[in-house]
Amino acid sequence: MGETITITVEERRRGDGTAYKLDYAGSNGPILRKGTTEKNNPGTLPLSPSLDPTPSPTSGRPSPTTDEFVSKFKVPTYTMKQIHASIPAHCLIPSTSLSILYFLRDILMVVSLLGISLFIHPYIPSSLGYQIPFFLAYSFMQGLLFTGLWELAHECGHGALFEKKWMNHAMGLFIHSCLLVPYHSWRFTHSTHHKTTNNLERDIAFVPMTREAYDLSNPPPPTSPKQVDGAEPHEFITWPDWHQIHSYMEDTPIFVLTHLFFHQLIAWPLYLSINNFALPRMAAVPWWKRSHFYFFGDGPNFTARQCKEVFISDLGIAAMAGVLWGIGRMAGGGNVGLWYGLPWLWTNHWICISSPFPS
After folding, report:
1. Does the pLDDT value for residue 7 go beyond 50?
2. How far is residue 31's CA from residue 334's CA, in Å, rounded to a whole number?
3. CA 333 from chain center: how many Å?
4. CA-CA distance, 151 to 156, in Å (whole number)?
5. pLDDT tens across 81-134, in order?
6. Phi and psi of 99, rounded to 5°?
7. How many CA atoms lie within 13 A of 316 on its CB side?
8. Contact of 99 with 161, CB cutoff 8 Å
9. pLDDT recorded at residue 9
10. Angle value at C-alpha 171, between 104 and 350, nearest 5 degrees
11. CB atoms within 10 A of CB 174
């Protein structure tokens, strides 16, 4: 007999306040029996409204229904401090040696894949029928490795890879700069997002559009319709504007596929550079002030105290851009695009998959 888990739910159809206890005992399935009412058992837990106390004629288990029970949600009384305190202490102590090992492992895999691919490439026929599959395979695999490094920098931004702050920032700045991400700028906005997740007024990313904002972006048809040539004097046709066309087409497969393609291709660099997904309160600010590269302190993203680190992030990006420019001068810009640019685009794709920006 396994451990019994008791959940009390309220029967709403009869209206008499009768409650049931649902006991899970071993593999015998749930057994329903009358229990106490919510009045003398205030610890009632929420339950899916699909549970019906009437046994199924075939299995003896409760049959699903949509109106037999109503879930009752109660706000949890535990705090984030209590959740943090429940985590074993050793889980909160990062290992410097293990973190460095992860970094060296990922760098070794990136360099090895690049070296092997450069060795094999001269033996690949020059026709597009061979070159395209080769670079698709290489860029896909290298993009996965780039993403692994990206996530190590992400952990550095949370201060989770090393005990010492300067080590987190040094490694995070190096990795993200190599991937053309302004480390400190991203770290500040990412921290704000975590502190204000799901707050419609304070969060700066992944905030759904409110009804008011949607209405503003989708105005009603014009009140003065235009008459079409050949129509009767009393017959008018209202020409739809772009917002109406968008609302008509936004769920069509071709529209969704086109939107998805460009979203996965350029959403991340656009977000960093001009913050084109800005919320209405931020959209009122010029695009260059809401950029992750703006370090003058009068924008919506960063305070004056953070400007120094934002500037350091910009220097890291400039240094990496200089490296790529130098390699391009020696090996050709096309080769930089094939060997670095394509995997970088795959990385942007995976980042957008894990963090779907609002559009």
Report:
1. no
2. 68
3. 32
4. 9
5. 898 889 998 888 899 999 999 999 999 999 999 999 999 999 999 999 999 999
6. -65, -45
7. 25
8. yes
9. 40
10. 80
11. 17
Q: Among candidates 255, 260, 293, which has minimal Cα distance to 274? A: 293
Could you tell me what percent of the chain has a pLDDT over 90? 43
DSSP string of 61-123? SEEE-SSS-----------HHHHHHTS-GGGGS--HHHHHHHHHHHHHHHHHHHHHHHHHGGG
Measured at the CA of 346, the angle between CA 146 and CA 311, to 5 degrees, comes to 60
Note the pLDDT tens digit of each residue in 315-351: 999 999 999 999 999 999 999 999 999 999 999 999 8
What's the distance, Cα to Cα, between the start and end of the chain in Å? 52
Alpha carbons within 13 A on the beta-carbon side of 153: 27
CA 176 to chain centre: 18
How many angstroms separate the CA atoms of 101 and 97, rounded? Answer: 6
- Residue 26, number of CB atoms within 10 A of its CB: 9
- Using the Cα atoms of residue 123, residue 127, residue 133 and residue 139 in order, give the sign of their dihedral: positive
Task: Return the closest-CA partner of residue 120 out of 98, 110, 105, 135.
Answer: 135
**Each residue's pLDDT tens digit, 136-170:** 999 999 999 999 999 999 999 999 999 999 999 99
- The yes-or-no verdict on residue 262 having pLDDT over 50 is yes
**Based on the number of CB atoms within 10 Å of its own CB, is 302 exposed (0-12), middle (13-18) or buried (19 or more)?**
buried
| CB-neighbour burial class of residue 84 (10 A; exposed 0-12, middle 13-18, buried 19+) | exposed
Cα gap 62→72, rounded to integer Å: 19
Q: CA–CA separation, 353 vs 359, rounded Å?
A: 14
| The model's pTM | 0.70
Q: What is the pLDDT of residue 179?
A: 97
Helix extents (H) in the chain: 80-85, 96-120, 128-157, 165-178, 183-195, 211-217, 242-249, 253-274, 280-283, 307-331, 333-336, 342-354
Confidence of residue 242 (pLDDT cuts 50, 70, 90): low
